[in-house]
């Protein structure tokens, strides 16, 4: 099984487990004398089976990520860098939105609001970092599709 397939299965399991949690909550109580819409015992059994498979997949994915090396770096390190880059870019984009928004003045007596940074220069930097993030993500995706799950 390729790593990408395991990642896809993990995502599906996580969605299924979340849905099972909702279904369990919906069937936690019922009116006296009325049966629940679904048998909680069966739902709990299905939840346990899914959790066992999820744990196995997570263990194998983490093992594979820590032992897969590309250009001297583990896949785990590449994933950490990607996560940090995504977070930084998200913050910078939000900051740029605020810094570049126009504040209308209705008269010359109102206080003029100006940006605290060079928006154009920062936008250029964000564009460069976005390109680097895309390239890193492509590298990670290529590894996911070519690496066998351990």
Give the SSE map.
Elements: H1 3-26, H2 40-67, E1 69-70, E2 73-74, H3 75-100, H4 119-146
Antiparallel strand pairs: 1-2
Helix pairs in contact: 1-2, 1-4, 3-4
Short description, anyone?
This protein has 150 residues and is mostly helical. The protein has helices spanning 3-26, 40-67, 75-100, 119-146, and strands at 69-70, 73-74.
Description:
With 150 residues, this protein is mainly alpha-helical. The protein folds into 2 domains: 1-67; 70-150. 71% of the residues lie in helices and 3% in strands. It has 4 helices and 2 strands. It has helices at residues 3-26, 40-67, 75-100, 119-146; strands at 69-70, 73-74. It is flat and about 75 Å long.
The radius of gyration over CA amounts to: 24 Å
Summarize the amount of helix as a percent range. Answer: over 70%
Report the count of strand segments.
2
Order of helices and strands: HHEEHH
| Molecular shape | flat
Report the average pLDDT across residues.
Answer: 94
Domain module count? 2
Tell me the structural class: mainly alpha
Q: Give, in spatial order, the strands making up the sheet with the most strands.
A: 1-2
Compute the number of helices: 4
Fraction in beta strands: under 5%
Distance between the termini: 9 Å
Main beta sheet, described?
2 strands, antiparallel
């Amino acid at each position: 099984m390729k790593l990408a397939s395991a990642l896809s299965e993990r995502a599906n399991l996580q969605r299924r487990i979340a849905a099972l949690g909702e279904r369990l909550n919906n069937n936690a109580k019922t009116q006296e004398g009325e049966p629940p819409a679904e048998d909680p015992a069966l739902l709990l059994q299905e939840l346990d089976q899914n959790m066992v498979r999820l744990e196995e997949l997570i263990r194998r994915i983490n093992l594979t990520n820590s032992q897969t090396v590309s250009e001297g770096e583990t896949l785990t390190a590449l994933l950490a860098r990607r996560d940090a880059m995504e977070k930084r870019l998200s913050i910078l984009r939000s900051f740029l939105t605020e810094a570049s928004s126009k504040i209308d003045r209705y008269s010359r007596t109102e206080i003029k609001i100006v940006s605290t940074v060079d928006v154009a220069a920062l936008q250029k930097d964000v564009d460069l970092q976005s390109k680097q993030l895309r390239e890193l993500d492509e590298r990670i995706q290529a590894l996911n599709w070519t690496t066998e799950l351990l």
